[in-house]
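Q: Structure for this?
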Amino acid sequence: MRLDLLLRISSKIFLPFIILFAFYVQFHGDFGPGGGFQAGVIFAAGIILYTIIFGIKKAQKDFPETIFNYMVPLGVLIFTVTGLISLSKGFNFLDYDALAHYPKHGQHIGIIAIELGVFVTVIGSMVSIFYAFVARGKK
Amino acid sequence: MALTTLGIIRLRNLFSVVILSTIYSFLMATLLLIFDAVDVALTEAAVGAGISTVLMLTVLYYTKVNEEKPKFKSILPLIICLTIGGLLIYGTYGLPPFGASDTPIHTHISVQYLERSISETGVPNVVTSVLASYRGFDTLGEVIVVFTAAIGVLSILKRDKI
């Protein structure tokens, strides 16, 4: 454990910035490059880095696996419910004009909502698959 | 990029192959960046070079590092690959010149998206407005694809726990 002191310290410094960058890509997606998928992958990469440096046991204690397993269907649910809300207000499925008084505000809210859905599903699936792969080696 | 591809084909050490494919992904991301496709370049760098390298290395941890000699001669697949590749290259001669502005893809729907995106959605990034708003249905399908893939992989890997 002594040898990877440098790795542990530097990854501790880097991790907040990776997570922050993921959220930047997520919420800045309508102005700059990026969106839910890219942000989700960057966030998952942060957690995978944490797992590689600190080991699977500590990572699964800090970020429990069940959360990520639940996130996989949760994102699809957020996406579909956004579509159904606009459907229930008499608009087309996934027509975000229905979500606010002004169509442009509605578009903004709708895009953020569905990007959140993509984000959640992508993090959930990436980290669950990684955990499942790594956990096979314990036996 | 051609050199890394040749290296991936020739090398028998899978560890070097994984690293070479990472290099290939980064070169691809750079190429996409030069073509101004920043969103795709970001995805390629994060998924192709980041996550898939880690997953490949995890798989290598469980298997052997060196690939075995192939049991069959690879002449017939080579002929098929060369024929199809040649046909595809022949097909590219029918395409309009690179960057020409009067081609069908630049005259029909892309112009509509570029003109109407700001006034209809108020989102400056046209890629996001097309993906999330005009083609929301497609994106929903893509999320369901990711969902299905995750369910499939997890049900294979965790078969013994159910």
